[in-house]
Amino acid sequence: MTTFAELGVDQDIVDVLASKGIVDAFPIQEQTIPLGLPGQDIIGQAKTGTGKTFGFGIPVVQRLGPNPEPGVKALIVVPTRELAVQVYEDMDMLTSGRSTSVVAIYGGKAYEGQIDQLKAGAQIVVGTPGRLIDLNNQRLLDLSSAVEVVLDEADKMLDLGFLADIEKIFTKVAPVRHTQLFSATMPGPIVALARRFMSNPIHIRATDPDEGLTQANIQHLVYRAHSLDKDEVIARILQADERGKTVIFTRTKRAAQRLSDELGDRGFNTASVHGDMSQEARERSMAAFKAGKKDVLIATDVAARGIDVDDVTHVINHTIPDDEKTYLHRAGRTGRAGKTGIAVTFVDWDDLHKWALINRALDFGQPEPTETYSSSPHLFTDLNIPEGTKGRLTTAPRAQAAETSKPRSDSGSAENGGRRRRSRPEQSAREPQPIAEHGGATVAAPEGAGTHDGGGSEHHDGNAAPRRRRRRRGGARTGGGAPAA
DNA sequence: AAAAAAT
């Protein structure tokens, strides 16, 4: 491990970091800080939760000098308002030992405070594209002296939805500048595109290419979700012991709101964040989740990237994301800074092709999911997060495979929830059907599951949450056969 | 096709 001081970081910054208990640099920081400090353009790629923000942030602060003149010298562009707040806080911390001031510029908030801070001479601007351009158009934000430019989540910023804004912003900043692009995911075509805005950039990958992009300390579980009551299964996951905070991702804003209400009704401590909420409510949710006042956050992909919350042990994909990049970023809300985490994904019938895509792109090595098997209703209460788990997806245990899947028994299976007898294919219809695991540990214990059957001895036996059954739409499908991909 | 991002 290298210390920040050894990397050439100024003493006041070293002191500030030390006061937060941060002494050793992460690999991406070891690699990019010595290059960023003298002004090398960088495309920095490192896995989720491994310290990219300081990788670009420290050189930005240091290069402005201890007493920069008033006026915008540095611009950091991010894809969401919440990430703007977070990066603002990090930069504010890094600059706390010097006179440099930082301002967050993003929409959904009053103009006044932001404009005041700009007029007061803020040197570092962290913002989202819309409001940045808005204020620039109003001549309230002069970017012409911005000599430090960073795109955080750079591949997202250069994506179609943002590219025009980013191109415009690059016409406004200083032509001779230091430019840094950071992300966990940097597809080749995006790197090629990025070079247009940079000068002789060096591409730093703080990962072993053979290792792929997935975090070794995140265990990935994938379940077929058809004929599965996802609300019920998610409720069970939330009752598992050894759970810290949990982020649940949905595909749509409406689904996020519905699930948040539903789990809230069931007695869980939920908060939500999505684009249909007021900015004030969004920030209240994030603050409560970070502070631990709420331990379940239901979110759209607005929270998929960059958001750093301590002690998130579980990420649940209520709906599988569309592509491997989003999968990686969502899962990356857990397993940060060396900790372990679990990512659980539910794959709906119509989405099996997305799983195939992700499976292939992330090299999970799992064959197409053509089998189902029933698993313990205690599956999620038995989860232990294995240390340093790593490796390819293991094939689903065949012993339990229900090759001839029966029509689901559709009696009141939810009635006794997790109390049902288990390990019977006949009863599997509404139980989680794992199709893959990544991480090495066998989590579903089809044969030996009995050891955990406490017959009521468990402390997580459902009473934690008031039960209130509400049937989701019919959804009776006969499971089993290999779906057409 | 959804979500995000200005009002």
Write the CATH fold name of the largest domain.
Rossmann fold
Shape: globular
Structural class: alpha/beta
Sheet with the most strands, sense and barrel status: 8 strands, mixed
Low-confidence spans: pLDDT under 50, at least 5 residues? 367-485
Strand content: 15-25%
Distance N to C terminus: 46 Å
Number of strand elements: 17
Number of helices: 14
User: What's the number of domains?
Assistant: 2
Mean pLDDT: 78
Radius of gyration: 24 Å
The CATH homologous superfamily name of the largest domain equals P-loop containing nucleotide triphosphate hydrolases
Helix content: 25-40%
Strand order of the largest sheet: 12-13-11-14-15-10-17-16
